Each structure stands twice: as structure tokens, then as C-alpha cells.
Amino acid sequence: MQDNGKDNYFSRLREIPPAVWALGFVSMLMDISSEIIHALLPVYLVTVLGTSMLTVGFIEGIAEATASITKVFSGALSDWLGKRKLLAVIGYGLAAFTKPIFPLASSVSWLVAARFIDRIGKGIRGAPRDALVADIAPANLRGASFGLRQSLDTVGAFLGPALAVGLMWLTANHFQAVFWAAVIPAFLAVGLLLFAVHEPERPQGLRSVRSPFSLAELKRLGLAYWWVVGIAVVFSIARFSEAFLILRAQAVGLPATLVPMVLVLMNFVYALAAYPVGVLSDRANRITVLSVGFGLLAAADLVLSFTNGLAGVTAGVALWGLHMGFTQGLLATLVADTAPPELRGTAYGIFNLLCGAAMLAASVLAGALWDGIGPQSTFLAGAVFTGLALALLALTRQIAPTVGQTQKSA
Questions:
Q1: Which residues make Cβ contacts (< 8 Å) with residue 218, sequence separation at least 6?
Q2: The domain containing residue 67 runs over which residues?
Q3: Angle, in degrees to the nearest 10, between helices 286-306 and 375-394
């Protein structure tokens, strides 16, 4: 039994294709670069360039909206061209080449342009990269492969802010020097993608796609895919921005200097959980595993609703990170399971766009509830929407019985 456990979690790492490992490290390096800059950019804009908080909000809103819209078109384009790596390289390359603008910029307009192009790059690479993971990974290792890539990506998400803090201390708060340091991992990511990832040959007989957004092609995505998207959209309404975790920690007395530790803790737990959960989903019904993740979010919301102390918030943030590990890679795996191989790029593009729009709406609703009633109402509303997503998940066997079944080796 012990050997079987090792096979499930550790020895299976050796079975994951090297290209999936490379894509995971590409994600990690780019995330380190981006998060070093993003952790400091709002402060830099306000304290060094003298911009208003409204301008900061405008820049971030435009940036994220741009990424969400671009994702759907890049995914469809990767299906039409049959070339996923090319679009991933363009996306990561755009992000890398914007990084030197941040230390060189002398005005807000340059930073707006850099942030805008950086997010276009993120939008271009997202769906083709996920489709490429699905194309490379054997069916029986799909959950583990997505879990590994997500885990490495999330390592970058907590290492980036931690490095930003350390580099600011080493350079005596020299923003430009820290921004220059962020350029290095970005270009390492592009180099790794170029030389370590080889796109598999297109299978013989695989149908060509000429009009990914035509009604006929969208119908070919099938009921199972659209059911997964519907559940993910409802779940995204429950999963508002992590900014509210920071606000909750501040509300119970966490000092401002320690606020970044909220996201470090969340991403640390997320990174630890993502790969083991992916392996588990290859051996068990994915819907069962996903329902545990939904339950963890409901638990996090309830803890954060009723706690009045820092220990409670810490537990809530850890549960939030655990739910991310149980859900994000697994939802991406379910898209790969249910979408036809020739339409995977389109499938990921639509999935990312709709979930992104739902999260935007969720964050607006969360903010309105926080201002109008109080923080407890924000997290209770999250728990209610999570319950609705769980109810839909429970109907999966009746609506789309094939969703979540263990994939066999291909």
C-alpha cells in the first residue's frame, strides 16, 4: 500500500513528459518576473510618479479586461493554425519585451502601454499553452500534468512578491533596480519555451478547423463541455478577487507591512496542493475530487465570515489556497477531457473569457456588499454561490454522465 502511494504521487512525476515540466517552469519564471513588478507597481505609481488611486484602478481594470478578451481569440487561432507553440512564444515574448519598459518609463503613459501589452501577451499565451499541455500529456496523466503546471506557476506567484520585498531591502528601495532584476526571469522563460518545448505532430486524420466560432463548431464542443463551463462560471461568481482576503486581514488588525504575507500564504498552500490533487484526479472520479474543492471554498467563506481574529483569518486564507489547489488545475483538466482535440484552443479561450467575466462581476458584487452591509455579507454571499455550484455539480451524472470519469492511457 505504501508503494502504491508513492506511485500515485512521487514516481509519477517521472512519467510526466519533459515538455510539460518545461511549460511549468516557463510559467513559474514568467510569474516571478510579473509578480515582482506587480507587487510594487501600485506603490511606484502613487509615491514616485504621483498618480491617483483612480488611475491605478483604471490601469489594472483595462489590463485584466484586455487579457480576458484576447484569450478567446488566441485559442481559436491556435486551432485554425494548428500551431499552439508559436502563439505561446508570441505571448510570452511580448510579456518579456515589455519588462524593460517598467524601469525605463518616465511617465504614466509608458507604464500604461507596457501593462497593456503585457496583458495582451498573457491573453495570447494562456489558451494555446493549456491546449498544448492537453496535447502533450497522456490521457492517464492529464490531471497530474495540469496539476504540476499549475503548482509550478503558483510557486512563481508567491516567490515573486517575496523576492520583491527582499530586493527592495537589498537596494534600499530602489524601484528601477528591482524592475531591472525582474527582466531576467522573463527572458529565461522565453528561452526555455523556445528550446525545451517541442509541439507534438498533429495526429493523422485529425479534422481541420477553419471557422472556430461558427455555430457548427461551437455545437461540436458538446453538452459535456458546456456543462463544465456552466459549473465553472457559477463557481467563479463565488470566487471573487483575493484582494478581499487582504482587506479582511487588515480589518482584524494585520499590520500594513505584513499584508503581502496573505497572498504568500494562500499561494504557498495552493502550490503544495495542486499536483497531489491532479494525481488523485487521475485515479478517482474528477467530479468527486472537485466537489471537495468546492466544499473547501464554502468552509473558507464561513471561517472568514465569522472570525474576529488573526488566527481565524489565517485559517480562512489557508483554506482558500487549498480550494484553489483542488479546483483550478482540475477545471482545466475537465476542459481537456470534454473538448474535441482539434477545438481545445477555442474551448480554453471561451472557458477563460466567461470565467474571467464572472469573476469581474463577483468582485463588483463583493465590493458592493462590503460597502453596503459589511465584510461578513461578502463571504456569506460567496458561500451561497458555492452551494449553488455544488448543487449543479451533483447533477452532473444525470446531465453529462461521462464528465469526470477516469481517463485511460492513450
A1: none
A2: 11-197
A3: 160
Residue 338's nearest CA partner among 209, 230, 214 is 230
Q: What is the DSSP string of 285-311?
A: -HHHHHHHHHHHHHHHHHHHHH--SHH
Rounded CA separation 107/52 (Å): 13
Cell of 20: 510539460
336 touches 281 (CB < 8 A): no
Give the CATH number for residue 400.
Answer: 1.20.1250.20
Q: Can you say whether the dihedral through the CA atoms of 301, 302, 308, 314 is positive or negative?
A: negative
CA atoms of 224 and 404, how far apart (whole Å) = 10
Between residues 377 and 296, which one has the greater pLDDT? 296
Q: What is the pLDDT of residue 2?
A: 46
Q: How many domains does the chain have?
A: 2
Nearest to 333 by CA among 317, 322, 347, 318: 347
Instruction: Kindly tell me if the per-residue pLDDT of 29 is higher than 90.
Output: yes
| 360 CB-near residues (< 8 Å, 6+ apart) | 64, 65, 68
The Cα 232–Cα 120 span in angstroms is 23
Segment 138-151 shows an average pLDDT of 87
- How do residues 119-133 score in pLDDT, each as one tens digit? 888 888 888 898 899
Phi, psi of 105 (to 5 degrees): -65, 135
Q: In the prediction, which pLDDT does 207 show?
A: 58
**Overall pTM surpassing 0.85 (yes/no):** no
203 in a structural domain? no
